[in-house]
Amino acid sequence: VGADTALVQRGVVACNATSLKDTSADVKAQGRAAEVRAGALEPFDFAGRGLSDDSTKRQSLRFAMSFDSPGQAARQLRTRLMLVTGPFIGREGRLEDSLTLTGSSTAGSTATLRFDHPTESIDYMTGEGPLLFAGCPG
Questions:
Q1: Is the Cα torsion angle 40, 9, 115, 122 positive or negative in sign?
Q2: Which has more confidence, 76 or 51?
């Protein structure tokens, strides 16, 4: 409790960490179909992830992405909100089995998604795979 961790990445490094690049053809097709339904993902300048122990029962996980303008951040937030529910593409189960969306916001050119995660779970996400809601164009 009280331990905070953060990861900030820029450009290609951030995109590679969340992309469909190293996935199977089936996962790539699922990801592209999800993006067509939600709207086009646009690349970000910086991406950050933060994990905070808010209590003995929950953790707070934040994903923040910095875009070129406040308008782009607002549009991308709407698109990315469409990708935080449903099948966890490239992973097991549904996204909401691992993460519960608790809020979203923009501040200037930065869009942020906030999630809760129960502390009794060992992993905040099952397996490895893309994070479309925090990713770059496929």
A1: positive
A2: 76
Residue 13's pLDDT is 86
If one counts every other C-beta atom within 10 angstroms of the C-beta of residue 99, the result is: 23
Q: In what order do the strands lie in the sheet with 4-10?
A: 4-10, 46-53, 58-66, 110-118, 100-107
Q: Tell me the pTM.
A: 0.86
* Cα dihedral 107, 13, 2, 116 in deg (nearest 10): 60
Q: How many residues does the chain have?
A: 138
| Residues in Cβ contact with 84 at an 8 Å cutoff, skipping those fewer than 6 apart | 95, 96, 99, 101, 113, 115, 133
CA distance 15 to 113: 17
Q: Which residues have C-beta within 8 Å of that of residue 95, sequence separation ≥ 6?
A: 84, 85, 86, 87, 88, 133
